[in-house]
Amino acid sequence: MYPDAILKAWRQIVSPPFRRILWRALALTLALIVLVWLALTRGVAMLMDRYALLVDYPLIDSFALIFAGIGIFIALAFLVPPISALVAGYFLDDAAEMVEGAHYPADPPGRPLSFGRSILYGLRFAGLSLMVNAIALVLLFVPGVNLIAFFGANAYLLGREYFELAAGRFQPMPEAAAMRHRNRGTVLLAGLVIAGFVAIPVINLMTPLFGVAYMVHVHKKLAAREARAMATATVRGG
Known about the structure:
Elements (H helix, E strand, L loop, with lengths): L2 H11 L5 H32 L7 H46 L11 H25 L6 H22 L5 H10 L1 H15 L8 H31 L1
Helix pairs in contact: 1-8, 2-3, 3-4, 3-5, 3-8, 4-5, 5-6, 5-7, 5-8, 7-8
C-alpha cells in the first residue's frame, strides 16, 4: 500500500506545477459527467413519456420523479470510475512525467505511450470499469454485499489498470501485466486506496491524476524491490 506514496501523490496533485494538468483533467471529467447526466435524464424522461409512467396525481408524479432522480444519482456515482478511467488514459504521460521528474530525477525516464495507444488503453479501461460497476450496481440491492462488491470490484480493476498504465512506460505491456501478477497483493491494496478515493464525493473527480501519481510511486517501489531480490539471488547463486 505504501502510505508515503499516498501522501506524495496527494501533495503533488495539489501542488502548483500540477495544477495545469489538474484543471484540464477536472474540466474533461466534469464535461463527461454532465454529458452522461444529460443523457440519463433525457432517457428517463423519454421512458416516462413513452410508457405513460406519470399520471394525473401530483403526489404520485412527485414520488416518481424523486425516485428517478435518486436512480440517476446512483448511476452517476457508479459511472465515475469508468469516466475517470477514460480521462486517465489521456493525461497519463503528462502526469507520470511530472511525478518521475520530481521524485526520481536520477532514474531513466519512462517512454510515453503513443496517443493512439493511450486512448485505446483508456477506452479498454473505461469499458472494463463500466462492466464491473454495472455488476456492482446490480449487487447494490443485495444487503451486506453492496459495499463489498463496489470496493472489491474497483480495488481489483483500478489497481490492475492504473498499475499497468504506469508500468507500461518502462516495459512492454505483457511484462507489466506479469509484474502486476507477481505483486498482485500489493497492487490490490493500492487499488483499494484508489477505490476509497473514488468513494469520496467531489474529491473523486481528481481520481485520474491521483491514481496515476500514486501508481508511479508503487511501480517504482516494486521495481526497486524486485531489482534488490534479483541482485541478492545473483550473489547467492555466484
